[in-house]
C-alpha cells in the first residue's frame, strides 16, 4: 500500500502544481482573488453534485453511514481548508506562483511533527534528513535577485505573509484528513467540504468582501466560466488523489508534497513564454536566478529520492 500512496501522491503533487499556475491565471483574469474564490466554490458544488450522482448511478462509489466523530473531522478540516484557500488566492494575487508553491511545500515543517505526535508515523532519522534536503532545494527554487532569503524566511517576500498563513491552515486541515483514515470516499468528502465552503462563503461574505474585494465589481463572462470549470476539474483530480494519500500516511503525502513548488517552477519555465500564459506568469528568468533554481530542483529530487529509498525499504 505504501507504494500506491507514493505513486498517487506524486501524481497529485504534479496536478496541484498545474492548478497553481492555472489559478494564478484565473485570479488575474477575474481581477480579484476573492471573487474567483466565490466562483470556484459555487461552481464546484454543482460539479461535485453531478459527479457523485453519476458515481452512485453506476455504483462506482457507495454512501456509507458517517459517524458523528467523522462529521466533526470533516467540518474541522473544511473550516481550515476554507481559510487556507482564501489566503492562498490572496497570496497569488499580490505575489508570484513559485514563492507560493514553495511556502505550501514548507507545510511539511508543521505536518511531520503532527504525524509523529498524533499518528505515531516514525521513520529512520535519515528519512527526515532527506526531507530537509528536499525542502532546502524547494526553497532554492523560489530564489529571486530582488528578494533575499532573509526576506523569504521573515515573510516579507511576494505574498509570503499570506502564504505562511495558508501553510498553517492547510497543515492542520490535512491532519484532520489523516484522522479520517479514508473512512469516507474522497469524492463524497469533497462534496461535503464544498457544501461547508458554500455556507461559510455566504456567512462571511459581508466581512470578507470588505477585506478582499477592495470595492471591485464582480467580473464574469463566458470565458471566465469556461476556464473556471476546467480549473475545478483539475483541482478535483488533485484533491481526491491527495485526500486518498493523506488518509493512509501523512508523512509520505506531505513529504512528497514538497515537490509541488519544484514542479510549479518547472511548469512555469515551460509555459512562461507561451501565448496563453506569458502575460500572467511574471517570473524572473535571468541566468543567476535560473542557475540557483535549477540547483534547487536537483537538490529537491535528490532529497525526495533519498527519503523514498528509506520509506520503501521498510515495505
Describe this structure in words.
The protein has helices at 2-30, 33-57, 68-94, 97-105, 108-119, 125-140, 149-153, 160-180, 186-213, 222-248, 250-257, 259-271, 287-312. The protein has 315 residues and is mostly helical. α1 packs across α11 (250-257), α5 runs antiparallel to α11 and α8 (160-180) packs across α10. The longest helix has 29 residues, at 2-30. The radius of gyration is 19 Å and the shape is globular. It starts with a helix and ends with a helix.
Which features characterize this protein?
globular, single chain, mainly alpha
List the SSEs and their pairings.
Layout lengths: L1 H29 L2 H25 L10 H27 L2 H9 L2 H12 L5 H16 L8 H5 L6 H21 L5 H28 L8 H27 L1 H8 L1 H13 L15 H26 L3
Helix pairs in contact: 1-10, 1-11, 1-12, 2-3, 2-9, 2-10, 3-8, 3-9, 4-8, 4-12, 5-8, 5-11, 6-13, 8-10, 10-11, 12-13
Radius of gyration: 19 Å
- The coarse overall form would be globular
Instruction: Indicate the mean pLDDT.
Output: 84
Oligomer: single chain
What fraction strand?
A: under 5%
CA-CA gap between termini:
9 Å
Offer a concise description of the structure.
The chain is an all-alpha fold.
Amino acid at each position: 500500500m505504501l507504494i500506491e500512496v507514493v505513486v498517487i501522491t506524486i501524481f497529485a503533487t504534479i496536478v496541484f502544481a498545474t492548478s497553481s499556475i492555472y489559478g494564478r491565471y484565473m485570479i488575474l483574469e477575474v481581477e480579484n482573488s476573492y471573487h474567483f474564490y466565490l466562483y470556484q466554490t459555487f461552481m464546484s458544488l454543482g460539479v461535485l453534485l453531478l459527479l457523485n450522482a453519476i458515481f452512485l448511478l453506476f455504483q462506482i462509489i457507495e454512501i456509507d453511514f458517517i459517524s458523528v466523530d467523522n462529521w466533526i473531522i470533516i467540518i474541522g478540516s473544511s473550516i481550515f481548508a476554507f481559510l487556507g484557500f482564501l489566503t492562498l488566492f490572496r497570496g497569488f494575487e499580490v505575489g508570484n506562483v513559485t514563492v507560493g508553491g514553495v511556502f505550501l511545500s514548507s507545510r511539511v515543517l508543521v505536518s511531520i511533527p503532527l504525524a509523529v505526535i498524533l499518528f505515531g508515523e516514525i521513520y529512520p532519522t535519515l528519512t527526515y534528513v532527506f526531507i530537509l534536503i528536499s525542502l532546502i532545494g524547494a526553497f532554492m527554487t523560489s530564489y529571486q535577485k530582488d528578494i533575499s532569503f532573509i526576506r523569504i524566511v521573515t515573510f516579507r517576500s511576494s505574498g509570503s505573509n499570506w502564504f505562511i498563513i495558508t501553510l498553517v491552515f492547510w497543515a492542520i486541515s490535512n491532519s484532520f484528513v489523516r484522522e479520517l483514515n479514508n473512512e469516507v470516499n474522497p469524492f463524497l468528502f469533497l462534496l461535503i467540504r464544498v457544501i461547508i465552503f458554500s455556507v461559510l462563503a455566504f456567512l462571511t461574505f459581508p466581512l470578507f468582501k470588505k477585506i478582499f474585494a477592495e470595492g471591485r465589481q464582480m467580473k464574469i463572462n463566458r470565458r471566465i466560466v469556461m476556464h473556471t470549470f476546467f480549473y475545478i476539474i483539475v483541482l478535483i483530480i488533485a484533491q481526491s488523489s491527495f485526500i486518498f494519500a493523506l488518509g493512509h500516511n501523512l508523512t509520505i503525502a506531505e513529504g512528497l508534497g514538497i515537490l509541488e513548488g519544484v514542479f510549479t517552477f518547472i511548469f512555469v519555465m515551460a509555459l512562461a513564454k507561451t501565448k496563453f500564459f506569458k502575460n500572467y506568469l511574471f517570473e524572473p528568468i535571468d541566468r543567476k536566478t535560473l542557475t540557483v533554481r535549477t540547483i534547487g530542483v536537483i537538490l529537491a529530487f535528490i532529497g525526495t529520492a533519498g527519503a523514498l529509498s528509506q520509506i520503501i525499504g521498510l515495505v
